[in-house]
Structure formats: structure tokens, C-alpha cells
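Newbie here. two chains, one complex. Structure please?
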Amino acid sequence: MSAGLKVLAPGLHTTVQDLGRPGYQAIGVPVSGALDGVSLRLANALVGNPPGTPALEILMSGPTFEVAADTVRVALAGAGTSLAIGPEKARVVAGQSATLPGGEVIEVVVGRQSACCYLAVEGGITVPLVLGSASTYVRAAIGGLDGRALRRSDFVPLATARASHRAELRLSSPIAATGDQPIRVVLGPQQEYFIEEAVAAFLGAEFRISQSADRMGMRLDGPFLQHRHGWDIVSDAIMTGAIQVPGSGQPILLLADHQTTGGYPKIATVISADLPVVGRRRPGDALRFAPVTVETAEQLCRTEERRLAELVAALEPVRAGHALDLGSLYDGNLISGVVSGVE
Amino acid sequence: MKVRFLSAGDRALVVEFGDRIERALSDDVLRLDASLRSSRLPGVVETVPTFRSLMVHYDPVATTCADLERAIASLLDRPPDPRATTTLWRVPVCYEGSFAPDLGEVAKRTGLAPSEVVARHSGTRYHVYMLGFLPGFPYMGDLPHELALPRRADPRLRVPAGSVSIATTLTAIYPYESPGGWHLIGVTPIRLFDPARPRPALLEPGDKVQFEPIDPVSFASIRKAVESGQYEVAKEPISR
């Protein structure tokens, strides 16, 4: 039988995602891909995969899998998340790889620090690419596993049946919670459709992420943002991170699965360096916005790319005694008392 | 040519030609889109044409908004290519019975007989302004002015895939079952979007469309041919 992860419990919304399918927005296909591309890339780096290898995006509540392969190397990335392995629930914290034997049960434990986390598997998940990407876009049922979120008893196919022999890797410092720093935006493209007080309120006030939040976008509760002359514009294209304001005066922050076009004015756009931060925020969390210029945002994007490259370059082998290699541990009958020291 | 450059964050630039649904604006948008695609500027990831603007997605590691604005401004000065061609698609539509749940109401509200609504809808050659809302969803116009109606007050939760619809000055086809507020006056048996095809969206921005009325019997036989991969939508090249 081919290698895979058998889904014992699917979690709230677990999907296969990579870095998305750019190139098809002109024909109405959203880019999709990981809400938090930084964590996806870190999870992949920890298991030795190229950055855009398909992995599992886990939202709000964690799935449970059984390993159906000889051995698998996995890594989780997401603040405050961990893997609980086997009946002892031995913990592997996020930001560290681990190799597990066939039959082992992996539960993804998510805390309250991040809305999303990523489980990468060495070699990657092998679903057919649709328009060049494995990303799941549920609304049109494309990508991923049959174009939908995981269900109980699904089989997530893996590229390799056996983990490579090498040391486990971890981040040189643990993944920190994101904190509540303001989300940086570039005003526009339609800030002129709002009265000055609305732009000031948008930048000055605190918003709260409502319960209406999914991969398409999050509705924000906060001050009423008054349009200058109505809220209909002739449809134009939408960028991920755009903050559109319909007639309700309550903004919607558009995420990876957003429609490619729309007819509401967009007061501002979240800068690309802060999109992963937005992706980690949960319903009920507060959001504040701070304006930057396009030039600054472009600079921040380049800085963030360098920071990520440095994080990947600084991955370090896990010291003996801290590695959770259940395959060899079982062989040596050393399973008791194995708990990672970095939490 | 007078355009406005609007920033949509640090990865997209909007080239705005106007704020109306108008053929001349659309032609300008599509002309810039074509020249951007052929000039392959460094750092440009993809372009998205709409009724009145072109969004240019870029990678700020490879270029900047300022450099792109300069490059686009010089492309805008190029004269249009008089030899440019496009494709006319002949899309079969059944406008009868349960295929056309809103035809009666459209007829009543426009003061036309149902057959006149169909004759006008199928007697017009449409321009595909843009795609959006769902993969492969084409916004086409312009509708004969007698057929212009606002969207339905009560949008449907489920519009069947293939539904041919009208609202305001536009007509569209729903590629997937989805919620929708447009008036449904027919169904096409063809498949608007299929990611496995070399050209996933049947209709692309700038294409022309003519609807060809068919009866339920032909609908069933075309649908069968579509499902077995034996049907090709009739098309011909025409000048822009």
C-alpha cells in the first residue's frame, strides 16, 4: 500500500495548501495557498522540503492522524502548537522535526496563540496539481484532497514511505507568539471613497475579528466607516489583504481564497510582510492598523524575505536527548519519559 | 493616454482607465493587458483586467511600484495593433420551461413577450469584459437596453451550473452551482470552466459571444456529448 496519513479526526478545517496558484486570477481563480506562508515555509524547511511543498494547513482545532508508512518525518509550525504522539501524548513542540514509525498516532494540539499552523511531511503530500498548485480552494472544489477539507477516514497520500536518515532539525529559537502589534497597511486603492473622518477612524480605532472569518476573509467589528458617495464601485480587481467596506460600514479583510474581483471600495491593503500575522489572528482578537508608504512596504517585504532565509539557514540539529525519534526509541525500548525540553 | 496609478499594497498596482462600464475603456484595458503580457517586464507576476482597470501583480523582491509605473507609462504610448483579432464563440442555450425560471418575470417587467426577450438576448453579440466572482464566470455586455433590470431583491442560495443570467447592462453564465442574484433566463449545456483543459476558462476577457437558442432535446444530446468529451463549442476568429 502507498504511504499516507490516515485521518482519525479531521479538525475544524484542515486543508492541503502550498504557496498558491498565481497566474489565473484573470480567469477568476483565486491564488489560495497558505494563510501564513512564513509558517508553511518554516515547517517545510524543518523536514528538508523545498519551501512550497504541499503541507496541511490546520485552522483553529487540530486533527489526529495515524501514520500509514514505514516512517515519516513531520514538523509543525505555528505559535503555541505542538504534536502529541501516541497514547503517552509525548510532546513535540512546533519548530522541531520528529520521525515517527508506522501505526503511530499524531494529534495536532493547537493553543489560543495562533489561528493556523502547518504540518509538513518530509517529501510532501502528493495530491494532483490543479493549475500548477496543490492548494485547496473549497468554493470551486479544486486542489487538495478532492477540493475539500479533510474528513474522518481520509487518506492523505505521501510522496515517500520512509524518512531519510539524518538528524532532526529545530529552529534556533522557539516560535514566538505574534503579539498584538498594529497591522501595517498601504492606504487605497479607494481611500478617496471615504470621508476623512472614516480614514482617521480606520487608522485610529481598534477593530475586533468577528466570528465570520474563514479563508476568504474576516469581517471586522469596529467604528462605522462612512463612505463619501455610496459604496458601489464598478468592479475592479482585489489584492489579498485588501480591506473592503460594504454598505454596512464594517470592513472585511480579504484573505487567500477571496474573489478575484469585487464592487466595494477598498480603504487600505495589508502589506505583504504582515499578511502571515493577520492569518494567525483568531476571531475575537483585536486588530489595529498603521499606515506605511508603498516604498516602505516594499522594503519591509524584502527585509522579511531575508529574515526568513536567515531563520532557515540557522536551523540546528536537535541535540541528543532532545530528539523525538520514536522509530529508534521504540527499537531501544526507551519510550518512557520522552518529552521535548523546549516549550 | 490618461490613467491613474493606484497602489493595492506592495504587491499590486492598479492602472485605472475610468470608472464606468464602457467598451472603449475595456478596449484600452485589454490592449495594455496584451502589451504587458507580451513585454514580460521583470517582476510582473500576473495581470487582471476588469471593466475599467488593470491590476498588475508584482514581486517587490524583483521590481518596485515606481519602476513599473514608468514601464507601463511607456507601453501606454504605443499605438494599437490594427491586426489584433479575437474569438467569437457560439454558445448554445436552452431558454425553455424549467431552464428559464425567471423568463416570465423578466418578460412581465420589461413589457416584452418571453419570445421577444429570447430573441433580443440571443440576437446580440456580447463582449467579455472580465471574469470574476468564480473561476470562469464571464461578465458580458452590453445587453439590449430593453432587457436591463436591477438584480433580484432576493438572491437565490443555489443557482444551477450553466445558468445564463442577466442583470443591469450585463449577461453572465454561472460556471458552478452557487448563490446568485441575477435573473435566470436559460441554461447552457457546455462547461464554462475545467482546470484540466489547456485553456481552463472557455471565455476569456476580450472574447465575443453569441447565444444560439436550442430546444431541450438538443440540450440533452449536447450535454451528453460534453460529458463524454465529444463536444466542441463552435468558434471563429474575428477582428477586434
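Moderator note: Helices of chain B lie at 23-39, 65-76, 103-110, 114-122, 216-227. Chain B touches chain A through 47 residues (CB under 8 Å). Thread marked as resolved.
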